[in-house]
Amino acid sequence: MIFSKIDAATYPFINLASQLVRELEKSLGISAILSPDSEVLRRSIERIREAVYSRTTSVYKKDLDIEILSHPVALLLIKHMNNAKLVNIYAEAEKNRALVNLLKEDYEKLMALAVDGFNWHVRKEGGYLFIRFDDYLKTSVNMLDAYWKLVNRRLVNGYVELPRRDFSRLLAEAYRVRILERAGQAEDVQVPSALKLVIEELDKEFRAALPKVDMDTTYVNEYKPSAFPPCVSKLLEEAEQGKNLSHMARFTLATFLISIGKRPEELLNVFRKMPDFDEGKTLYHLRHIAGELGSRTRYTPPSCATLRTFGLCVANDSLCQKVKHPLTYYSKKLKLLKRERT
Amino acid sequence: MKKLDNESFIKKMSKRYYIEWKEEPPKDFSRREFAFVVSRKGEVIRHKAFEKWSDVKEFLCKNSPLHVYYSSAYYAQPSAPDMDAKEWMGADLVFDIDVDHIYTPCKEQHDKWMCLNCGAIGNGMPPEECLKCSSKRIEAKTWFCEKCLEIAKEETIKLVEDFLIQDFGLSPQEISIVFSGRRGFHIHVESDVVRELDQRARREIVDYVRGTGLMVQDKKRRALAPPLNAGGWPGRIAKGVYELLNSGNVEGLLNIKGGSKAEEAIRAIIKRLEESQDYWPLEGVTRRVWLKVVEKVIAHKHCEVDERVTTDIKRLIRLPGTLHGGTGLIAAKVRLSGIESFDPYVHAVAFLKGNVKVKVLNMPEITFLNQTWGPYNNEVVELPIGLAVYLICSENAILVSEEVEVD
After folding, report:
1. Are A158 and B211 within 8 A, CB to CB?
2. pTM passes above 0.90
């Protein structure tokens, strides 16, 4: 399939988009593109603002060259602001914009975009699209819902069957991940000093507009059992009953409680009723986990996915469906409880 | 001819084996890390890499190690002593099917455990904790009987045929099955399709073959029945339900109450399965019966693999064709077509010529090289050398012969 310029503007992940960017950079010159009064710069800033204030971006169709250049320039600006939250929001907004358009495409176009943009191995059969399992997994592991687990998909002869809608969603997600990867790479383009001032202003604006990082997983520092995720509550209960917990269960309990600010010595009582309790050994392990001994790494609790694999996931309330880490559950639940009180 | 202690005897036998050793190298062996356990105390040589395959043989002959491992991972610098400096480039997909982790009823007869804390003993699969004092310090004496072997084979065939070939579309040439040397099989997949998958992706694969997280109802808690011709798990479930419901004695098996209504539901499900081309919704009694049967089907059709082995992308695993120091048996490659007739006590025996006198501490009846031996209890017997090596390696016997016949 031959892509058009409008495709390159709508789907920045296809090769034609990068090719056009290279050509335009050559013909216009980087310094012109990044000069304070450049239209590209104006559109790039607008694109980031759209992401921040409306969580999606539009496609500016009046001048496709400008639109095509605005994505890499927006990314460049974002990289210089060094704000993880902003990166995530931009990637999410770009994903939303891609998804809206992808949902309107036919089978052939979707397959062509997937092959060109991400080298996916795909084919069409009947009313379904098929994607090779390794391509599927590389993207689907980022999806939270059990719906996307491989075990809940029809997998035949190495290919995963996907309805068109799901195929579009997977493609949009692959684009989001691509942006995050790009944002993590080192930048070699020098920014002119006039632009530095612009970036500083934008940085201030976005830091004010975006709420403080709401998922700082390491330091919540508040002990409120009623906000514990169900898996942790269950483990605590079992420890209280003196059940002999598995290694993974103990590790989960210890890392969780330490992550929310408990000291190793305070946790001895949690494990005291275990049949093989040994105060010295337990304290040693707890201090290790807390990063006070050995490698000085402070361990965080396992993710929901790991807990599921080890059969420790209880997932019995609706908040569980929205998170992939027990600490995220905790901080979200704390907030909910506070909101209820006020 | 001098008197040998157990360890020197094992090392001597090991050397003899490796002098004659001929084994195909794993894919890109020069990108792999090799590791060796060289003494019974557990001394390890790690971070070795070899440019030439003949160097591996030379190393084995010189050091006669008890265990030989290689990395499932490919590294830019396989001999770098630091894991990060090795630079991971990808890894084979590896599965471990080990009877240690699968319940088999025959263990009641041949496995024993003892609590090192209170001295309590018991038969069968060792419990996670002592039944008396709840200590976790449990020592087990385990054996691998024909029934255990059957179960390990069944799981392996299920994994390779039903999952890896049918569902994952891997070709038999990319899959090798290797006897673990003790109580199970390792399955190695050397394919570009799996090579770059990270831990999270491999966890998804483990969950797939184990049936973990399988949804049998939709978000509105409606049970949906797939048609018989569906692929993947939906088809596996539909076929399993169909087989089970047609097998008779369903009520007893499922412990379903409700008499004629349940029978009616079963007939209805069978009829729908035979006729349907697509998913169909279930309600009322049929739904209840369906969900019960599905539970049984998943338990039967899923595959018991050890998730830690598959999700670890930097794991060391026994090198095919080498000896297992705990049994003296060869970790022999097995063809899928030949697995049903594979007998480790024939096909994985490294030493065939000669007899050795040993004092056997304890051994149940065993069929070794197609001949029945034992049971023995604290007695001195002359045994074929392969069996003697097996018992000495597994610490069930002590060498008695002052001299060892060399061929």
Report:
1. no
2. no
